[in-house]
Amino acid sequence: MRKSHSLVSLSMQALMIPLFLVLLLPLHVTASDSVYETFVQCLSNQTNQPDQVSNIVYSQTNPSYTAVLRAYIRNSRFNTSTTPKPTIIVTPTQESHVQATVICTKNIGIQLKIRSGGHDYEGVSYISDVPFIILDMFNLRSITINLQEQTAWVESGATLGELYYRIWEKSKVLGFPAGICPTVGVGGHLSGGGYGNMLRKHGLSVDHVLDAKLVDVNGKILDKESMGEDLFWAIRGGGGASFGVILSYKIKLITVPETVSVFRIERSLDEEENVTDIVYKWQQVAPTTDDNLWMRMLIQPVSSKVNKGEKTIRISILTMFLGNAEGLVALLDKDFPELGLKKDGVMEMSWIESVVWWANYDNGTSPSVLLDRNPDSANFLKRKSDYVQTPISKDGLEWLWKKMIELGKTGLVFNPYGGKMNEIPDSATAFPHRAGNLFKIQYSMNWDEEGIELEKNYTAQIRRLYSYMTPFVSKNPRSAFLNYRDLDIGINNNDKNSYEEGEVYGVKYFNDNFHRLVKVKTAVDPHNFFRNEQSIPINPRVNSGVTRLLLLTSILSLEKLMGGLMYLLLVWDLQIQRMNFWP
After folding, report:
1. Burial category of 572 from C-beta neighbours within 10 Å (exposed 0-12, middle 13-18, buried 19 and up)
2. Are 534 and 493 in contact (CB under 8 A)?
3. Of 349, 351, 343, 350, nearest in space to 325 by CA
4. Which one of 184, 334, 365, 520 has the minimum C-beta count within 10 Å?
5. d(CA 335, CA 328)
6. How confident is the model at residue 11 (pLDDT cuts 50, 70, 90)?
7. What is d(CA 432, CA 481) in angstroms, rounded to the nearest whole number?
8. Measured between alpha carbons, how far is residue 135 from residues 95, 117, 125, 213, 279 in Å?
């Protein structure tokens, strides 16, 4: 009887072993040492380069781990001792390293975060609440200019500053319409749309993307032709990290004039009675004036120079004009005489010099400064965004000044649209915010000191101002800009409610384009491997049949495994009997 009982007991254990392993798998994945060893072995096998693997993979015990992690953290809120850290950081130097990383991360069953420049305002590219690996693209930064075609291939780990500098090295009459901050990574900037101070003349960065290379969920490298029209559409404004790993973009360069003009004008509410009139008029002029002119306006609560101890509102207008000073003064004398612009208040310069000026360097600074990545440099910050489609009234502006002064610190940045943006259909790329928008608002809050209470205070301020602005901004949906990442508008837990959660923020970022993005996502990444807190969700209705089939396959595979174990245990038991082990 004891023999029989032992055999049954062992058989039952055999049945339980696979289930036990399945239940333990998530716990296994959190064991960083085990994950590291498994991952490195997989990476070595996939790349056939075991010697190189050790140079591109950083575990938490590696002496360089912290420096590599911190180098591209651009928000100090996510650079604290309590911030979740990646189990592993991978810093590929070849495209094959990216392919292998996708395959091995998927095999292990751990989350993959992709970082190009680290400027994601909410740290989505380098933090997570679950165990994760960072694929840090900063080594993949090559830029190849083709002057004859007036094109360039740019790897996603390059910065905008590097792109601008390399174009200028080759030509003094070519440029590219993209962002103002030179340390922003190309991969995230272009995949989210890419706007800058030439968008009224030339549109967005994604409007000039000709081709792309992407590593898909199976580790294959796809280009425009092999990825197909839908996926190529999605990664131009829909955020690349939902669909794969962007390796590089092929972009069409634009011609820029030999001379451009810039100026900065400041006005304070306590010194000038017509500040409200200027802001009101700006709303009429900035989106409709000559396409060569782009006028950004900053609105900030500052300490009054007139009434000591009190706050006032200061406005700053910064301008990029694709032409000379004389033409700019003549244009604004006609369209915006309230500014009182004079020629001696305008600086003429080359396009590359304007790039340096917009990056807040002194006029005359060498363009080589654009090659400085400024690693491990960040402020504490919070950002939000809105779109304005009808001008805010003068009464509304006066009320807004009072609220901003009450709050004390949150600033606004008004970025005008119009021009070329009105000519391109909302559905041309995944980026939807085109005609009908007068300007985009960035809510801006920076602070210098670490502290939970400080952060609560400052983030509460910016959220209150955002709430106050509700009557003045777009509705149904209240639209937002993906590259001004804001987790306040919705978070995806990537569980059974993933689609419903994703729709909340998805329609704000992408309007009607959200539904097409979901179709693309469901087709190219049906198991949602490429996911984050605000990624594009899959359509569960489309995937339900596929999921059932996969579940059935998994059960059959499990049954085979259990059957094999049963067989081995029976053989083992028989051998023991032959050895007269049992009494």
Report:
1. exposed
2. no
3. 343
4. 334
5. 10
6. very low
7. 9
8. 12, 12, 9, 16, 44
In degrees and rounded to multiples of 5, residue 313 shows phi and psi of: -110, 130
Question: Closest by alpha carbon to 457, among 408, 405, 501?
Answer: 408
Measured CA to CA, the distance from residue 196 to residue 175 in angstroms comes to 12
User: For residue 433, what are its two tokens?
Assistant: 């915010």
Residues annotated as catalytic are: 484
Judge whether 384 and 488 are in contact, CB under 8 Å: yes
Cβ atoms 182, 164 nearer than 8 A: yes
305: left (phi over 0), alpha (psi -120 to 50) or beta: alpha
- Asked whether the predicted pLDDT for residue 568 surpasses 60, the reply is no
DSSP 3-state of 481: coil
Q: Using 50, 70 and 90 to split pLDDT, how confident is the model at 557? A: low
Work out the burial of residue 268: count CB atoms within 10 Å of its CB; fewer than 13 is exposed, 13-18 middle, 19 or more buried.
middle
Report yes or no: 110 and 35 within 8 Å, Cβ to Cβ. Answer: yes
How far is the C-alpha of 217 from the C-alpha of 198, rounded, in Å?
Answer: 35
Evaluate if residue 180 carries a pLDDT over 50: yes
Please state, in angstroms and rounded to a whole number, the distance separating the CA atoms of residues 184 and 164.
12
Residue 279 CB coordination number (10 Å): 23
Q: What's the gap between Cα 388 and its chain centre? A: 22
pLDDT attached to residue 25: 45
pLDDT band for 34, please (50, 70, 90 cuts).
confident
**Residues 254, 2: Cα–Cα separation, whole Å:** 85
- Number of residues that this document lists for the chain: 583
HSE-CB of 351 using CA atoms within 13 angstroms: 24
Q: Is 139 left (phi over 0), alpha (psi -120 to 50) or beta?
A: alpha
Residues 574, 572: Cα–Cα separation, whole Å: 5
Helix residue ranges per DSSP H, 109-145: none
Separation between Cα atoms, residue 373 and residue 159, nearest integer Å: 8
Please list, residue by residue across 113-144, b when 16 or more beta carbons sit within 10 angstroms of its beta carbon and e when fewer do: bbbbbbbbbbbbbbbbeebbbbbbbbebbebe
Band of the pLDDT at 582, cuts 50, 70, 90? very low
274 contacts: CB under 8 Å, gap ≥ 6: 267, 338
Instruction: Convert the pLDDT of each residue in 450-495 to its tens digit.
Output: 999 999 999 999 999 999 999 999 999 999 999 999 999 999 999 9
Amino acid identity, position 289: T
pTM for the model: 0.88
Q: What is the largest CA-CA distance in the chain?
A: 107
What lies within 8 Å, CB to CB, of 193 at 6+ separation is 204, 205, 206, 237, 429, 431, 481, 482, 483
Question: CB atoms < 10 A from the CB of 314, how many?
Answer: 21
Is residue 332 classed as helix, strand or coil in its secondary structure? helix
Quote the CA–CA distance of 441 and 276 in Å, as a whole number. 17
d(Cα 249, Cα 178) in Å, to the nearest integer? 13
